[in-house]
Specification:
The structure is a homodimer of 240-residue chains. By secondary structure, chain A is an alpha/beta fold. In chain A, 29% of the residues lie in helices and 25% in strands. The first copy, chain A, is built from 8 helices and 13 strands. In chain A, the strands form 3 sheets. Chain A has a 5-stranded parallel sheet, with helices on both faces. In chain A, a hairpin with a 7-residue loop joins strand 9 and strand 10. Chain A is elongated. In chain A, 52% of the residues are buried. Strand 7 of chain A pairs antiparallel with strand 7 of chain B.
Chain lengths: 240, 240
């Protein structure tokens, strides 16, 4: 039995009861070392199997293999679908007869970070990863244009890394062709972890923010506003 | 103190520990009657205050008012940001001095339903509500076009109701101008509740599905495929 489990931000309170149960029932917990390190203090009695970055395929195959004879959980940060391992596991599943697969959803960064910023994601929302490791840059650029044109609230995952320092700036420049430089934006660092912080700024200011791979970025729609220190997208209820 | 709490699908296992704690700490739990009915069996010792549909403004004001002197939770299905009450509460907050506000995120239907269908939401995703009660139809139509053009996975909330029987069909017809009728789609009814069911179909078939307000609809991107009985969007990992 293989559970592919969304652990949310990494704060224990952010996990669902179903995720907690899946981990408790597992003989092994498998995951990328950053995420196993987050879970170890919560489940000290469990065995963990950790692997490095870019070893996604091996990690999924190992999990499917163990799942043939044991109960195991493969953990993903946030939700196990979104930029996670669930799809890859389904792609290989038939090669591992006997393994049953269950996806246990989790709170993805868009929502755990949004709750810190205020309520930016009240209305129609787009989530885009700026990482071009697995997606051609032309496709990302086209999606940014479509998202900006559609006046969606936009959430950017993987906005930058050491080798992609200017990606967030480039994304802002594309969106600035459709939206005002005054558009209310925000970003959250290290959601639910040590060093958690958030900031609200304008789209013009966001251009100059140095994000990293633990930053989640929010670009408001044309109606998003700053209320006090919070980023809020109204839905359009008649006021009374 | 006012917690605005995402209860997820309504299945207790789908709630986060933080949501559970907020409800346990509250003197009252306030919500739309469908959601209070879901929570009552889990928290039999708690007092509930329920209100009807389209009374969102009154419900939020009442919650903010109680929050001045007591600890209360206002519950929303899924996540309290997305088409939920969190933004409205921030809009009125300054009228209720003394009320502290905390948004407790939850697993929104897109993800809890996605996990049932397989892993449709692996890649860049758009969430759009087809309800035109609070959003002009021209805006919804433009967003559908942008989402389809961007080759996003599309999740539709509120795809139909008694008075909007043809909205899902119209949305499919817009998307069919950009995507193949063979595009892999799916829909989930009553996620996490009695009568839960899901179905995978083509975009051409989705046109003829009679959805209701408890249905969540998924339209795959150009790479989404059916694997066994599951809807899976690959992310593009090199296979090994």
């Amino acid at each position: 039995m293989l559970y592919i489990v969304g652990i949310g931000s990494g704060a224990r309170d952010c996990m669902t009861a179903a995720a907690e149960k899946a981990l408790m029932q597992s003989d092994f917990i498998i995951g990328y070392k950053t995420y196993t390190a987050l879970m170890k203090p919560f489940f000290p009695q469990k065995s963990f199997l950790e692997s490095g970055m870019r070893q996604e395929t091996e990690r999924v195959r190992l999990s499917l293999q163990y799942g043939q004879t044991q109960t195991v959980s493969l953990i993903c940060s946030g939700d196990p679908e979104l930029y996670g391992m669930a799809a890859l596991a389904y792609e290989y599943l038939e090669e591992y007869p006997g393994t049953e697969l269950e996806v246990v959803p989790g709170v993805t960064a868009a929502f755990s970070g949004g709750a810190l910023l205020g309520a930016p994601l009240t209305h129609d929302t787009v989530i885009i990863s700026l990482s071009d490791l697995l997606t051609p840059m032309e496709k990302i650029v086209h999606r940014l244009r479509c998202a900006a044109d559609g006046d969606f609230v936009i959430v950017l995952y993987n906005p930058s890394s050491k080798t992609r320092k200017d990606y967030l700036r480039n994304a802002c420049d594309i969106i600035l062709k459709y939206r005002s430089p005054e558009t209310v934006c925000g970003y959250v660092r290290n959601i639910g972890r040590e060093g958690e912080s958030y900031q609200i700024c304008s789209l013009a200011e966001l251009r100059n923010v140095q994000a990293d791979m633990f930053t989640t970025v929010y670009i408001g729609n044309s109606e998003t506003k700053k209320i006090g220190e919070k980023m809020v997208t109204p839905r359009g209820y008649p006021h009374a």
